[in-house]
Each structure stands twice: as structure tokens, then as C-alpha cells.
């Protein structure tokens, strides 16, 4: 390949930040490789073609500056929120990570808008506390605005695909949610249902009691039947007034199971 003046024609000229000083050597095709000085004080040894094509414009300092600027543009590169965002992208797009099978492998993806960190941060903001992490409301839906929230591990456990809904008294809630209302542990509720108890029995019969026919008012065969209609109505009245259930139990002289049967079961009163 012929070069003008053996490649000497560009010596002394400036391309981008590079000033061509001299021919450093020739490559295997006989084309000159130049010694260039950069405005930043660095040195580069680009080939003739890359200089003339404009692909070599500095010693590498331009690229370094661009990367540094990109890292500084939001100032959150080394923060927890940025790691949450990166991990979200990884588990949905990298088949090499173990958790991919539960996310990208199931067809879960990150919406186009949230592939840019600034958009994700604008929509979600900072987690309310170190205990909160990102959670999808619809566990089969994508990571996108409207389907994500900050939630604690307890709240996320209630939202897992493995969480079973317990339907009773016209409502469907997880065992954990029923437990907070009935004071019967969620593990006990699930175990009772697994043994063949009805949902209503699992939620109303106190722990330590034997399984009996459904709870009734005074006069039925259930050992919990000693609660009267007046007590049912008073328990409901106090609950509507914000009285703590333990105080109501003490005032009426009833058990926890009787209290919750009054609140949850007797809709006809």
C-alpha cells in the first residue's frame, strides 16, 4: 500500500487532541504507526487509518472522561438504590445467575423505561428503610411503574407465588393476615386446614381446644357456645369504637376464640 511521502504527510498535524510527532514503526502490512502526543500529556501510538478515520482522537482520556461523567451524573453509583436497580436488571437478563430461573426464566423483564437508572429512581425514589426492598405487586408481572412497591420481607412473603389464600367469612387473605386478626399463628392455621379443618374452624377455635362443630350462640353443642347474643353485639360495638380486643375480652368475660367468633362469624346479628 502506498502512503503519501511514506506516511510523513500528517506529521506535525493535529487530529482531535492528538498531535502527530513521528513514525513510530510500521505494521505487518507496511502501514505507519505514529507516535502522538495528547493535549492531556499522554502518549498514543495509533495507526494511520484510525487517525484519518477519526477513531483515534486522544490517548484514551476522552473515553475516561465520558465514563467518569456518566458515573457522576446522578451521584448514586455506590448506593443501595443503585445496587437494587443493577440486581433487578441482572436477574431478569443474565441466564448465568442462579436466580434467573425465577425471573427472566419465567418471562419476567424490566420495562424499557426502567433500563435507565434515572427513570427508575424518579419513579421509585429511595426505599423507606434498610428493611425495604423492591417487590412486584403482581408476582407474574414485569418490573414497571404501577406494579412495584417498596416492601419488607414479611410483606413480600405474603406476596409470593407460594402464598396460599385462605377464604373465610366472605374474605380471602393469607394465613399471616388472618393471624394478625385472630391471634392464632399462621403456622397453626395452615396446619389445621391441612388436617381437614374448615377455614372458619381453623380461624376461630382457640389454640389448645379440640375441633368441634362450628361455633354457635348459647344453647348449641359447641364448648364455645357460652357467648350470648348480647355479648356478640357488645363486642362488635366496642370494636367499632376502637377498644382493644383484650380489654373487651376482660370486660365481657369471654375467651379470645369467642371474641373472634363474634366479630367474624355472626353476620346475621
Largest sheet: 4 strands, antiparallel
Q: From the helix content, strand content and strand pairing, which structural class follows?
A: alpha+beta
Q: Which regions are unreliable across 5 or more consecutive residues at pLDDT < 50?
A: 212-225
Helix content: 25-40%
Query: What is the mean predicted local confidence, pLDDT?
Result: 82
Number of continuous helical runs:
11
Radius of gyration: 35 Å
Integer tally of domains: 3
Main-sheet strand order equals 1-2-3-4
The span between the termini is 101 Å
What is the total tally of β strands?
8
Describe this structure in words.
The structure is a single chain. This protein has three domains: 4-71, no CATH class; 76-157, no CATH class; 165-264, no CATH class. The chain is 36% helix and 13% strand. It is built from eleven helices and eight strands. The protein has helices spanning 48-53, 61-72, 80-93, 117-124, 153-157, 175-182, 186-194, 199-204, 229-240, 245-252, 256-264, and strands at residues 14-15, 18-26, 32-38, 43-44, 133-136, 148-151, 165-168, 171-174. A four-stranded antiparallel β-sheet has the order 1-2-3-4. The radius of gyration is 35 Å and the shape is rod-shaped. Mean pLDDT is 82; it is low at 212-225.
Topology, please?
Elements: E1 14-15, E2 18-26, E3 32-38, E4 43-44, H1 48-53, H2 61-72, H3 80-93, H4 117-124, E5 133-136, E6 148-151, H5 153-157, E7 165-168, E8 171-174, H6 175-182, H7 186-194, H8 199-204, H9 229-240, H10 245-252, H11 256-264
Antiparallel strand pairs: 1-2, 2-3, 3-4, 5-6, 7-8
Question: How do you describe this structure in short?
Answer:
By secondary structure, this protein is of the alpha+beta class. The chain contains 11 helices and 8 strands. It has a 4-stranded antiparallel β-sheet. It has a two-stranded antiparallel sheet with strand order 5-6.
Amino acid at each position: 500500500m502506498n502512503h503519501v511521502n511514506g506516511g510523513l504527510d500528517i506529521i506535525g498535524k493535529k487530529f482531535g487532541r492528538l498531535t502527530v510527532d513521528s513514525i513510530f514503526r510500521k505494521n505487518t502490512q507496511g502501514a505507519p504507526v505514529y507516535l502522538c502526543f495528547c493535549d492531556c500529556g499522554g502518549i498514543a501510538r495509533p495507526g494511520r487509518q484510525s487517525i484519518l478515520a477519526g477513531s483515534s482522537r486522544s490517548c484514551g482520556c476522552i473515553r475516561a472522561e465520558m465514563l467518569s461523567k456518566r458515573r457522576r451524573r446522578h451521584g448514586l453509583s455506590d448506593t443501595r438504590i443503585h445496587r437494587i436497580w443493577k440486581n433487578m436488571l441482572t436477574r431478569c437478563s443474565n441466564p448465568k445467575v442462579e436466580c434467573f430461573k425465577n425471573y427472566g426464566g419465567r418471562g419476567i423483564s424490566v420495562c424499557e423505561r426502567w433500563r435507565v437508572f434515572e427513570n427508575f429512581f424518579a419513579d421509585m425514589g429511595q426505599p423507606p428503610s434498610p428493611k425495604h426492598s423492591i417487590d412486584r405487586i403482581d408476582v407474574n408481572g414485569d418490573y414497571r411503574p404501577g406494579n412495584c412497591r417498596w416492601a419488607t420481607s414479611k410483606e413480600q412473603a405474603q406476596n409470593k407465588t407460594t402464598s396460599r389464600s385462605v377464604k373465610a367469612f366472605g374474605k380471602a387473605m393469607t394465613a399471616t393476615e388472618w393471624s394478625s386478626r385472630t391471634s392464632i399463628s399462621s403456622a397453626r392455621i395452615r396446619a389445621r386446614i391441612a388436617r381437614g379443618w374448615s377455614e372458619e374452624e381453623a380461624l376461630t377455635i382457640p389454640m389448645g381446644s379440640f375441633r368441634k362443630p362450628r361455633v354457635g350462640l348459647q344453647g348449641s353443642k359447641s364448648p364455645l357456645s357460652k357467648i350470648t347474643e348480647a355479648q356478640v353485639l357488645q363486642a362488635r360495638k366496642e370494636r367499632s369504637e376502637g377498644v382493644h380486643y383484650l380489654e373487651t375480652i376482660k370486660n365481657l368475660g369471654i375467651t379470645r376464640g369467642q371474641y373472634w367468633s363474634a366479630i367474624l362469624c355472626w353476620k346475621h346479628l
